[in-house]
Design goal:
By secondary structure, this protein is an alpha/beta fold. Helices cover about 45% and strands about 15% of the residues.
Length: about 425
């Protein structure tokens, strides 16, 4: 079978972003299943330089992975405005919600149509929202798999709620249109892959077909001193770019509800932040600096920073999207402490066995000191997390699910 792997604004990398990690696992799965894979990647003006710089620093192993593509096409584009006037906003919201939700398709769709005619694929594997919208906008229907990471309209709504003002009427209209546009992608997809069981259930309820839950996978890493914590004290750390909505909201809530209380109680619980700070909101950086958090920035070799049995927090308070960092943290034998909402869609978790899942952030105040003072408990949970990774979060473990997705589309192709 011949496939187009469609994604944007990211490298194929396990250490760039959660989305990039899922792009990588899909690409590797398609190649491992024997498909002819043609990559069509779109890079916006504002992100292109960062992505290409990351690829310029790739290891030989990463370059070998990219070389597996049967062809590779990069398309550079400028993101047009979602709308210019109120009349255009209302018109698009009513008649072209897909274009209002994902304005990039206005410049990408025509070029993608040309590529599709050239390749003549049996299926398209579209990674995330914009790619799904590009696939859904094709004039001639070609079966496509929509690899979903979250509901974009819901994240947009959470950003509105986080502002210290009521949404403008234009923002409310845009949110309504984003919902309609995203539903169009979901209902047109021949199959959908997501990493969250709760979102899979919701995708089915709104008309999505052939839903598969596939968590994010990574290559197994060698652990530094996996058998003992040695002389180092345990740390509290947070992994992820500070620019993303979930990390921003999670950390702001943690600093308000947990860190401030720990500091007030006289504890010395320094927070370590691992992830890109570019584009982070000033108020978050100010709060982190005020509590003397250690900002490590983006770390190319996570094994040099993620020490086994450290305490990794996921303080996000909403059940939205796929927690791509979970499997990465399990790979490094981290003791994950998360709110129930943040990891509600992850079936692989067993609270107090391979992680700590708490009802709310208030519970962190007592749970974190207990963990930090109990080395035996941390090691037991960290080792169980690593075993769970080896069983559930490798590509070989999840490859049969990818195979079923492709098989379904091969059988259904004749009906398109």
């Amino acid at each position: 079978m011949k496939c187009i792997c469609l994604f944007g604004d990211a490298p194929l990398s396990s250490n760039y972003s959660g989305a990039a990690s899922r792009h990588l696992q899909s690409f590797l799965a398609l190649k491992k299943l024997g498909l002819e894979v043609h990559v069509w990647r779109f890079l916006s003006d504002g992100v292109r330089e960062k992505v290409l710089e990351h690829e310029g620093n790739e290891t030989e192993h990463s370059k070998e992975i990219r070389a597996q593509a049967d062809s590779w096409t990069d398309v550079i584009y400028s993101l047009p405005p979602a709308y210019r006037t109120w009349i255009e906003l209302l018109s698009r919201a009513i008649s072209r919600p897909l274009l209002l939700a994902f304005p990039a398709i206005g410049t990408l769709s025509g070029r993608f149509v040309e590529f599709v005619h050239e390749v003549d694929p049996d299926l398209i594997w579209a990674e995330s929202g914009v790619a799904g919208a590009v696939a859904a906008s094709l004039p001639a229907p070609i079966p496509f798999v929509y690899s979903q990471t979250d509901f974009h309209y819901r994240i947009f709504g959470l950003r509105q709620e986080a502002r210290a003002r009521k949404p403008y009427p234009s923002e409310r209209i845009q949110l309504w249109a984003m919902h309609r546009g995203e539903m169009q992608v979901i209902r047109q997809a021949a199959a959908i892959v997501t990493g969250s069981q709760t979102e899979a259930d919701e995708l089915r309820s709104v008309g999505g077909r052939n839903i598969s839950v596939i968590p994010t996978t990574y290559e197994v890493v060698a652990l530094d001193h996996p058998n003992s914590q040695g002389e180092w004290p345990a740390r509290i750390l947070h992994l992820g770019s500070l620019r993303t909505t979930s990390n921003y909201l999670g950390l702001m809530a943690y600093l308000d509800k947990v860190q401030s209380r720990l500091d007030a109680n006289g504890g010395r619980y320094q927070l370590h932040i691992i992830g890109d700070v570019t584009g982070a909101k000033p108020e978050l950086l100010e709060r982190l600096n005020a509590c003397k958090a250690v900002l490590h920035g983006h770390v190319n070799d996570l094994g040099s920073t993620l020490r086994p049995f450290d305490v990794a927090i996921i303080p996000y308070e909403y059940d939205t999207g796929t927690r791509t960092k979970l499997s990465l943290l399990f790979n490094h034998a981290q003791v994950v402490v998360a709110t129930r909402s943040a990891v509600a869609g992850s079936r692989e978790l067993r609270p107090r066995e391979n992680c700590m899942v708490l009802p709310d952030l208030g519970s962190f105040i007592t749970a974190l000191p207990e963990l930090l003072s109990n080395r035996e408990l941390r090691e037991r949970i960290g080792r169980a997390a690593r075993k769970t990774f080896e069983k559930e979060f490798t590509l070989d473990a999840q490859l049969p699910k990818f195979a079923k997705v492709v098989e379904r589309l091969a059988v259904a192709k004749g009906s398109w």
